[in-house]
Amino acid sequence: MSQHRYPVGIRVGAAGGLGSPEAVAAAFLLGADFVLTGSVNQATPQADTSDAVKDMLAALDVQDTEYAPAGDMFELGARVQVVRKGTLFAARANKLYQLYRQHDGLDDIDEATRALLEKRYFGRTIADVWDETAAHLRGRRDADLDRADRDPKYRMALVFRWYLARTNRWARDGVTDQKVNFQIHCGPALGDFNRVVADTPMTDWRRRDVDAVAELLMTGAARILDRGRMDHRS
Question: Can you tell me the mean pLDDT for 107-111?
Fold first, then answer.
């Protein structure tokens, strides 16, 4: 700001990983001008996901998340944090990425593994998954269909990405018979928040309106910072 003589100061915030007043206070101590919460807002009445997902989120602890492939950047190996407790999604999605790395196409996968994917992961044949994927792409992304015809590995990626898209939708819609496949993006901050509100009315996510969550975190952080200033003066 000094070098370029900006007329207005640049405000730098901290986002993510904030699930307790202590975490928020630490962000401000490190110089943040503002904070932005993420995971803690998913287990609230305002979150646009199913009640089944919110029940799972409200029961998480800090160790109940894991990394899994990101659906929109599957081939690049990008990863996102997801819920591990109560679902097999992370293990299954990581298995799909492993298969993608190891094989040049669906035909290279052994019969036993193909049967496992169809029965446990997809709930339908690989051919049916491809037909559904192709129908979705046709008229929208014809270039992807042409590429899949030429490149078996790309076709395999599209089939595996079908699973990642479906698991996200199953979770959002609360398809209970697919609970084991729910893809729920979440970090350990929510487990931290669940510890903070344990044995209080906010244990129930229905009592966690987003403004109440923000009030708890910000007021708690202010008390911690005030207490720290008083201790420093003394």
Answer: 96
